């Protein structure tokens, strides 16, 4: 599946493949750095193993330029929504390399996730982002509806 053209010429969106590991790790380290989240080889290896495990719910898409350089990633999964008695999509991560930002790659990744959600009958795809992530929020405001929900994290390791 590649729903990019004519949005971004020369960019292909596809599922992650085993040969993407090195470039994916580079992208994911940059994503973690952007959000100020510590990253380790153990986290990278475990997340990568989830992406390649057909029995694990986490799935990954990557955006690849014509030169076979990975320029963006998206991780998503099915998530039960009890109030709807249906599965919905949940977007965990979306990232585009800084030097490719603003070219439509994020929109391309989102269009592919939207197509997957429609194929699977998910009535919606949900995600959270930082309030300060203004560039991503500009894209999200064009594609989706901002909700009034507030997100909390309960630190069980305290």
Which key terms come to mind for this protein?
five-stranded mixed β-sheet, 158 residues, alpha+beta, 5 strands
Overview of this protein structure:
Strand 3 and strand 4 (86-96) form a beta hairpin. The chain is an alpha+beta fold. It has helices at 21-34, 41-52, 105-120, 134-143, and strands at residues 12-15, 59-64, 70-81, 86-96, 125-126. The protein has a five-stranded mixed beta sheet with strand order 1-2-3-4-5, sandwiched between helices. The chain is built from four helices and five strands. The relative contact order is 0.16.
Low-pLDDT runs = none
If strands are numbered along the chain, what order do they take across the biggest sheet?
A: 1-2-3-4-5
Largest sheet: 5 strands, mixed
Oligomer: single chain
- The Cα radius of gyration reads 16 Å
Helix content: 25-40%
Query: Based on DSSP secondary structure assignment, what is the total number of beta strands?
Result: 5
The helix/strand order is EHHEEEHEH
State the helix count. 4
Mean pLDDT: 93
Share in β-strands: 15-25%
**What class do helices, strands and sheet pairing give?**
alpha+beta
What is the molecular shape? globular
Distance from first to last alpha carbon:
43 Å
């Amino acid at each position: 599946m590649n729903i990019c053209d004519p949005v971004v010429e020369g960019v292909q969106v596809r599922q992650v493949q085993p040969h993407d590991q090195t470039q994916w790790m580079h992208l994911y380290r940059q994503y973690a750095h952007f959000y100020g989240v510590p990253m380790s080889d153990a986290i990278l290896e475990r997340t990568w193993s989830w992406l390649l495990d057909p029995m694990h719910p986490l799935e990954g898409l990557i955006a690849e330029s014509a030169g076979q350089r990975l320029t963006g990633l998206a991780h998503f999964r099915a998530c039960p929504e009890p109030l709807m008695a249906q599965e919905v999509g949940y977007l965990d991560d979306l990232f585009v390399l800084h030097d490719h930002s603003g070219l439509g790659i994020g929109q391309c990744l989102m269009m592919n996730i939207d197509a997957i959600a429609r194929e699977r009958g998910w009535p919606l795809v949900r995600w959270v982002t930082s309030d300060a992530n203004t560039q991503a929020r500009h894209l999200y405001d064009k594609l989706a509806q901002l909700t009034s929900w507030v997100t909390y994290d309960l630190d069980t390791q305290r």
